[in-house]
Write a structure and sequence with these properties.
Blueprint lengths: L17 E2 L6 E14 L24 E17 L2 E14 L8 E11 L2 E6 L26 E11 L2 E8 L8 E3 L34 E10 L2 E11 L22 E12 L7 E10 L15 E6 L7 E9 L3 E3 L5 E3 L1 E14 L2 E13 L3 H12 L16 E12 L5 E14 L4 E4 L8 E5 L2 E13 L3
Length: 471
């Protein structure tokens, strides 16, 4: 009889690995099952900043939403003459309240290979640092967060002592926060939507971007030691305009939109606070020009356009109020130049373990976007010239600058190993600078009429149960 091959523990890479029988490759199977219940938040526990839920009407606004997610991961590693060869995949399924099919949808956020310092495939951006580490809700103020994964090719050099440096070429598709052709005949200004929406050349909700010319170039310098971690990072982003089709101004806008390069720089610090094991303090700041995704305004992750409605209109005939904020990378009007936006984000977070099974975190921050000089002029001129959209009249004093402030707290109880039960509450405020009463068309159950531009706020809460089995 042939000898039986028993599964053997592989201790080289840590707990949970075992040898694939008949090979020298070690593998770990992991994953989690999660159920969450979101109060005053969308299915991805996003605050009601835009869309139907932000209208505050009985027909459109849901008081709660639910999500169930099941994830499986596979981590395979083996030793070679060039170091560890690693492949990793994480995918699964989820069901949200808003899903069209009650059978759910697929979920896929990791698939990458690491070898001799190279990382290729889909994983988190090397610009990210805090990335909402201590909160459930994907906040705007947390800065760059590509937890959903992004296609890239990167090389990381290890300098010893926990110091490293990475140069990464990252697919810019999911870094496009919005581009607007604000010329006469261009796409109309839309409340709670990127101007032009999916009518731009790339069929995604990023407006009038040119076709991709080169990936985002991202670099970081990082240190990881027992006291914590620190990182400085930078990115270059193609922010060129381009428009094709019936929505463009006649006369060649697509060849006269202008090329532009955006950028972002940032830094972050995480300290392991010695009060209790697991205590941490985080702080991060980022400045971006023509690259709003890097300061948190990302249409694929959190929010980059805000259109919140409520009661409380001012003046004769006003039936409500609204707050608008457009997280664009730039604006052009056919004069041959893209005028870029610029902004910043800063946030801090702290986590404390009351006992080994009970911990609380608190965080807060601000993300702000400005339209300097020509960017504001083009935006406001475009808002007036395209008033035939859903804005009947834009009053004088147009100012598209805005900021978002958020603060929240989360407490997690782990009654047994690998089971987390958490509750989170977050407050969000939109500070916008538009003035006067805007005549808005009907939208969903929201009536047409005059709405006073004013600041808005909202809150949301999350109850989450999660059972982990090896990360």
């Amino acid at each position: 009889a042939k000898p039986v091959e028993y599964v053997k523990v592989c201790s080289v890479y840590g707990a949970g690995f075992y040898y694939i029988p008949g090979t020298d490759t070690c593998i770990k199977v992991g994953g989690f099952v999660r159920a969450e219940y979101n109060i005053n938040a969308a299915g991805s526990h996003t605050p009601y900043f835009n869309g139907a839920n932000s209208r505050e009407t009985r027909a459109d606004t849901n008081s709660y939403n639910t999500r169930t997610r099941g994830i499986v991961s596979f981590d395979a590693r083996s030793q070679t003459a060039y170091g560890t060869l690693r492949s990793y995949i994480r995918a699964g399924w989820e069901l949200n309240s808003a899903d069209a099919s009650y059978r759910g949808i697929s979920y896929f956020d990791r698939a990458f290979i690491q070898f001799a310092g190279l990382t290729v495939g889909k994983t988190q951006s090397f610009f990210d640092f805090y990335a909402n580490a201590l909160n459930y809700t994907t906040s705007v103020v947390g800065g760059s967060d590509t937890g959903h994964g992004i296609n890239l090719i990167a090389y990381t050099a290890q300098f010893g002592g926990g110091f490293s440096g990475t140069l990464s070429l990252e697919d810019q598709t999911h870094r496009r926060s919005g581009m607007w052709d604000a010329s006469v005949g261009g796409n109309p200004l839309a409340i709670a939507a990127i101007p032009g929406g999916a009518l731009g050349p790339n069929t995604m909700a990023t407006g009038d971007y040119a076709g991709q010319r080169y990936p985002d170039v991202v670099g970081n310098l990082r240190v990881d030691q027992p006291w914590g971690s620190a990182q400085i990072m930078a990115a270059l982003h193609d922010a060129s305009g381009g428009c094709v089709g019936a929505t463009c101004n006649p006369g060649g806008i697509s060849t006269n939109a202008g090329n532009a390069t955006g950028f972002a720089v940032g830094g972050g610090l995480m300290l392991n606070v010695p009060w209790a094991q697991g205590d941490q303090f985080w702080v991060q700041g980022t400045f971006a020009r023509g690259a709003a995704s890097y300061i948190g305004f990302n249409t694929y992750v959190s929010n980059n356009v805000f259109g919140m409605y409520s009661n409380g209109g001012a003046g004769a005939g006003a039936i409500g109020s609204f707050g608008g904020g457009w997280g664009l990378d730039g604006v052009f009007d056919g004069t041959g130049a893209v005028s870029l936006t610029e902004g910043f984000q800063v946030n801090a977070a702290f986590q404390h373990f009351w006992t080994p099974s009970l911990r609380t975190s608190i965080w807060g921050g601000v993300a702000s976007l400005r339209y300097p000089g020509a960017a504001a002029t083009k935006f406001c001129n475009g808002a007036v010239s395209t008033a035939a959209g859903n804005v009947a009249a834009v009053p004088t004093g147009c100012n598209p600058n805005f900021s978002v402030t958020q603060i929240g707290t989360r407490t997690i109880w782990s009654p047994v190993a690998n089971l987390d039960i958490g509750v989170e509450v977050m407050y969000s405020r939109l500070d916008q600078n538009m003035v006067g009463n805007w005549a808005l068309a009907s939208n969903g159950s929201r009536a047409a009429g005059l709405y006073t531009a004013r600041d808005q706020d909202t809150w949301n809460a999350v109850l989450r149960f999660q059972r982990n089995f090896w990360p």
